[in-house]
Amino acid sequence: MPKILIIEDEAAIRRVLKKIISEENETYIVEEAEDGLEGLEMLKNNDFDLILCDIKMPKMDGVEVLGKAKMLKPEVPIVMISGHGDLDTAVNTMRLGAFDYISKPPDLNRLLNTVRNALEQKVLVVENKLLKKKISKNYEMIGESEAITHIKEIIEKVANTDARVLITGPNGTGKELVAHWLHEKSSRSQAPLIEVNCAAIPSELIESELFGHVKGSFTGAVKDRAGKFESANGGTIFLDEIGDMSLSAQAKVLRALQENKVARVGSEKDISVNVRVVAATNKDLQKEIAEGNFREDLYHRLAVILIKVPALNDRREDIPLLVDFFADKISEEQGTVKKQFSKEAIQLLKEYNWTGNIRELRNVVERLIILGEKEVSAKDIQLFAQK
């Protein structure tokens, strides 16, 4: 049942608001506070789905209540109640995070519509938070080794900045995972994360893929098309395997980073973009620079923050945690009871040479869950975990 808090110093207006809201829906629980201090105290100790707050009140005005309430419970929508002379202030509160404002005396239909819309928004915010938690869990970084702890610390420090990040490491180590974590923990998390696998796109098409094209700019360009940079506007673009990008495309990416502008293939018109760039590669870019395959100026633009993801062989202490995580995930996907791994089985997995890194470990765990006994044993490892 939705709980609504009315913070208003005039008792008559409190009564009117409560009567209107309660008669609209009997399931609404409406509570009252006669000033901002009392309202904040009630908010600290209770969960509310909506707050109606007057602007001009003794002890603490509504603008201050709004700021403090948003810090306490940012997901709770707040509707400001304004007198005729408070309209400019009421409009300003919208910039500060208020859901809406209602003038005194309250119009019945306007009030009820605002209450319904605000409560619906609260439900959506909660659902989005749960969805984000679920998404974040899919991209969770598992491990307590020194190397993984260091990566997590770097992400915490840089996620909320717009600093460009270059992620390096062998194939299958989880570079994409790091990129997703950076985005999920950033202020851009509500905007898209657009992924581009530079190694999977033919060199003659990479520029069109990244920057878009106009109709007729090349054979097959039958209509205008936005590129990945435009699609990622406001969010993050993840350039995976950037070491495989052609020198021509590198030059255009460099311009985009320098000027925050892109131009579609076949067009001279610039399009402004606000994009955070995260790149990844399994190549030694310093060696690629020396051999003339990668632009040094682009490297320095990308490598503001460097994150090196270790091979699984260099973090063997994380294998028990990873096996348990994958066993949970695979049993959930297959709708089966989770299988346990014996200590001897885990020890053998820790001694295995993981040339395919995390990706290979996940495949092996899935194979063992399908083919192994109720408890995966050392014998199962010897039978099914070999290459």
Automatic annotation (TrEMBL):
SUPFAM superfamilies: CheY-like, P-loop containing nucleoside triphosphate hydrolases. Residues 141-370 form the Sigma-54 factor interaction domain. Residues 3-119 form the Response regulatory domain. Pfam families: AAA_lid_14 (PF25601), Response_reg (PF00072), Sigma54_activat (PF00158). The modification 4-aspartylphosphate is found at residue 54. One of its GO terms (biological process) is phosphorelay signal transduction system. It comes from the Bacteria. InterPro entries: AAA+_ATPase, AAA_lid_NorR, CheY-like_superfamily, P-loop_NTPase, Sig_transdc_resp-reg_receiver, Sigma_54_int, Sigma_54_int_dom_ATP-bd_2. GO terms for molecular function: ATP binding. Keywords: ATP-binding, Nucleotide-binding, Phosphoprotein. This is Response regulator. It comes from Polaribacter gangjinensis.
